[in-house]
């Protein structure tokens, strides 16, 4: 076993022996592991007031010339919204009123064209959008005004990636490996050459899982979680450490089933009603972690405040703000507007479900400024963005 992974193993033993502590101190104050314990929530926790300053809704205006079927993520830059829709294989750019401005790229196999959208990220320092097209295994670069800049072949199965401040790329394979690339994370230089690799796996015994695991930028690095995991790692100062360890109310996956994704899926398939794990789409904003997760086959989310070590559960958030009740089941948090504001997604499917199944929903909605906007959601592909600003 390599020394760095042996060291991580020893750290895990120390962390899990400290069950009564909410955090575990490392040598560096920033390298603090937070235990998010969902098994010890008390009745008085239901009376918590989330640190929400405001929630503003923005309906997306859709017509037949630019349909949107699914919103996977949003990039906000210079008063423009870059809407990523992997189902329609489109990148639509909207203004801050929700009106269509232009598209970036086209479906095809020619220069600057793509056949799918897997990984996609924005380099705000260079004002560029980078997209990986899986079938042709090529990285395509666009200017933010839509101009095609360049493309380059990359012999990898990239599931997602991020651009770091020095133009290095961190690549998440999500177990789409081969004999040469059998690490779940790769560090590439700006010319897409592999510089480092992290978290090895046996590519013959792993499955790619779309609904769990992923990577997310932070101010000093990025967060990483493998599929069906209860641990989220922070990368900063050129090293990884466990940033968040989740203790679920539901059944955790036994260690003997964590050795490969196929074994994890086998366990989940036989214990679907009781298993729990972190989902993808987690976002760090200031000292707050926005985390979707699965608990006993129910999709939930929470906000965790590192400074106060407070967990604001889905139930607490919904009780205080009806907008949280309307957030999408699968993608509740899809982007960041600024250092204080996260972007949530409200879709018509969730709203229609609440109208039919929650007798108090419309009455609660009437007490808010959202009533007119929400009550007019009719189209199956209607979307509203929720700009959630923290105090």
Itemize the secondary structure elements and their pairings.
Blueprint: H1 3-16, E1 23-24, E2 33-37, E3 52-59, E4 73-77, E5 80-85, E6 90-95, E7 100-103, E8 106-107, E9 113-114, E10 120-123, E11 128-133, E12 138-143, E13 148-153, E14 160-163, E15 169-172, E16 183-188, E17 194-200, E18 214-218, E19 221-225, E20 231-236, E21 239-247, H2 261-270, E22 276-278, E23 283-285, E24 288-295, E25 298-305, E26 310-313, H3 314-320, H4 322-325, E27 333-338, E28 341-347, H5 348-357, H6 361-366, H7 371-375, E29 383-390
Can you characterise this structure?
This is 6-bladed beta-propeller protein. InterPro entries: 6-blade_b-propeller_TolB-like (IPR011042). Pfam families: DUF5128. The structure is a single chain. The model is unreliable at 1-27 (pLDDT under 50). This protein has a domain at 49-68 and 279-391. Strands 1-2-21-20-19-18 form a six-stranded mixed sheet, with helices on one face. Strands 22, 23, 24, 25 and 26 form a five-stranded antiparallel sheet that branches. Strands 3-29-28-27 form a four-stranded antiparallel sheet. β5 (80-85) and β6 form a beta hairpin. It has helices at 3-16, 261-270, 314-320, 322-325, 348-357, 361-366, 371-375, and strands at 23-24, 33-37, 52-59, 73-77, 80-85, 90-95, 100-103, 106-107, 113-114, 120-123, 128-133, 138-143, 148-153, 160-163, 169-172, 183-188, 194-200, 214-218, 221-225, 231-236, 239-247, 276-278, 283-285, 288-295, 298-305, 310-313, 333-338, 341-347, 383-390. It is globular, with a radius of gyration of 21 Å. It is built from seven helices and 29 strands. It is mainly beta and 391 residues long.
């Amino acid at each position: 076993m390599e020394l760095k992974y042996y060291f991580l193993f020893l750290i895990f033993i120390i962390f899990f022996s400290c069950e009564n502590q909410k955090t575990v101190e490392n040598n560096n104050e920033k390298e603090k592991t937070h235990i998010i314990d969902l098994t010890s929530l008390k009745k008085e926790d239901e009376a918590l007031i989330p640190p929400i300053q405001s929630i503003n809704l923005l309906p997306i205006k859709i017509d037949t010339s630019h349909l949107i079927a699914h919103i996977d993520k949003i990039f906000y830059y210079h008063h423009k919204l870059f809407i990523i829709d992997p189902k329609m294989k489109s990148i639509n750019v909207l203004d801050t009123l929700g009106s269509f401005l232009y598209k970036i790229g086209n479906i095809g196999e020619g220069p600057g064209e793509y056949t799918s959208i897997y990984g996609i990220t924005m380099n705000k320092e260079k004002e560029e959008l980078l997209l990986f097209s899986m079938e042709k295994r090529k990285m395509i670069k666009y200017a933010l005004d839509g101009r095609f800049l360049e493309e380059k072949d990359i012999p990898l199965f990239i599931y997602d990636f991020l651009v770091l401040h020095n133009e290095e790329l961190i690549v998440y394979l999500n177990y789409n490996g081969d004999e040469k690339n059998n690490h779940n994370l790769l560090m590439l230089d700006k010319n897409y050459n592999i510089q480092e690799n992290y978290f090895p796996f046996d590519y013959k015994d792993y499955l790619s899982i779309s609904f769990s695991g992923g990577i997310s930028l932070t101010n000093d690095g990025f967060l990483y979680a493998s599929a069906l995991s209860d641990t989220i790692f922070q990368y900063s100062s050129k090293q990884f450490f466990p940033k968040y360890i989740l203790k679920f109310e539901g059944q955790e996956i036994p260690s003997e089933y964590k050795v490969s994704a196929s074994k994890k899926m086998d366990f989940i398939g036989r214990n679907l009603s009781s298993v729990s794990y972190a989902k993808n789409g987690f976002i760090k904003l200031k000292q707050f972690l926005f985390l979707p997760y699965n608990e006993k086959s129910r999709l939930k989310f929470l906000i965790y405040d590192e400074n106060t070590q407070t967990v604001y559960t889905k139930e607490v958030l919904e009780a205080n703000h009806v907008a949280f009740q309307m957030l999408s089941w699968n993608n509740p948090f899809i982007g960041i507007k600024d250092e204080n504001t996260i972007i949530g997604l409200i879709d018509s499917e969730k709203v229609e479900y609440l109208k039919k199944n929650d007798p108090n929903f419309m009455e609660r909605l009437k007490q808010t400024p959202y009533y007119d906007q929400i009550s007019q959601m009719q189209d199956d592909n209607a979307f509203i963005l929720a700009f959630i600003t923290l105090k």
